[in-house]
Amino acid sequence: MTARQSLFVGGSWVEPEGGHYEVIDPATERPVGWAPEASRDQVRAACAAAREAFGPWSRTAPEERAAVLARAAGLIATRLKEHAELAAAETGATLRTARALQVGVAAARFRRYARVEPAEWAVPPQINEAGPMGRAGVMGALAVRQPVGVVTCITSYNNPWANPAGKVAPALAMGNTVVVKPAPQDPLSVYRMAEALEAAGVPPGVVNVVSGTRTEVGEAAVASPDVDMVSFTGSTAVGRSIAEVCGRGMKRQLMELGGKGAALVFDDADLASAVAGIGTTYSFYSGQICTAPTRVLAQRGIHDRLVEQLVSYATRLKVGDPREPDTVVGPVISAAHRDRVESYVELGRKEGAVVVAGGQRPDLPAGFYVAPTLLADCGSGMRVAREEIFGPVVVVIPFDDEEEGIALADDTDYGLIDYVWSGDVARAFRVARRLRAGGVGINTVGRNMEAPFGGFKQSGVGRDVGSYALHAYSEVQSIVWPG
């Protein structure tokens, strides 16, 4: 168990005025460490420190900022094993997931934004006729990316390394300063990230981390007049509340919110590939991921075979201690969340769905486990098919033809990532272009980490990842002159 963690404010490690609270290992239900509970005043102090540091940091040469990010990436990588063990203990992720997809991805994201990219580009000259605005002439123009200012980064519990790194690294690369408010369930990993940035030479106030279980911590980090932008990953409901505050202050927003991804599986699909992709809902963070293909839309010709193979896949997965090398499905984040997921399974039964896999709590001595669950005979109007469950639960809905499949896929409030499995590549691309989702995977659940990421509808606002993140954390300034 780690020592009592301090806050990181203005380049100093500060004792929290709200005391400490226990961080619980969801696999063992035992304490992992003590996280700090910031007061509202301490959050405001963090925002003020970021504001003070913004001017000097924004004027620092991009190459110098990049060098800090590169050093941080190296420091994170050198302690990969230690960081992964803590991340696994905080989140319940398997060790290989914590190593590769949490800490490993975080280091990769810092390396990615250590690459300096042009921040200005020429705009085609314009020939102006003589008139009220002056004499005839040729007007040149330059578009310049400028930092937004102070960015509050509110991160999700499912990945306390990759998610904050995906916000902090591009924000710092663009010359912004940040206040990071990690999820209360697993904040200790984010403080390890702050340690790496401090050791890498980030100036005082450029990075600040404040945590807490009370809503006032996040509220203060959003409402502070020193904050120019909020980058949030989490539920749509919380995103709406943040957007209201941002609207009043005209703060910029980047919102990655909920998802209810549809996987359209056509009659000519490679079923083994589809089953493996859909099965990641069970194996990847125990379904606690907004990009999961949780709604399976199965064309009737393969519906029964697909259900049979998904049942077989789900029942083969080992559920248990994420530290064991053969474990595939670890726990969900908390007892409260386990109860919520189980309540949805029971709701599905009442709505008429048939539980063909899972549906019962695993017989384990401790931990917040949910068995991989498959609900068949579902309809698009059922709550289990419409609301984000955020657990290892997949629903199956049949469809007849392409038009019906597209209509069912879009019959949702969300629009983050959908998937299409078909042997007909032309059809797969045709269908993908018609789906109202920020991303579409064709015969894969894999991601291109330079492709823009974000959602349609209630799945979010804005795009990040790759160069798109540099745009997200910047304002574009036009400079015009006579030729």
From TrEMBL:
InterPro entries with a match to the protein in the record: Ald_DH/histidinol_DH, Ald_DH_C, Ald_DH_N, Aldehyde_DH_dom
Keyword hit for Oxidoreductase: yes
Entry-linked Pfam families: Aldedh
Keywords: Oxidoreductase
Domain (Aldehyde dehydrogenase): residue spans on this chain: 13-479
Keyword flag Oxidoreductase: yes
PANTHER family: ALDEHYDE DEHYDROGENASE-RELATED (PTHR11699)
Descriptive protein name: Aldehyde dehydrogenase family protein
Organism listed in the record: Streptomyces indiaensis
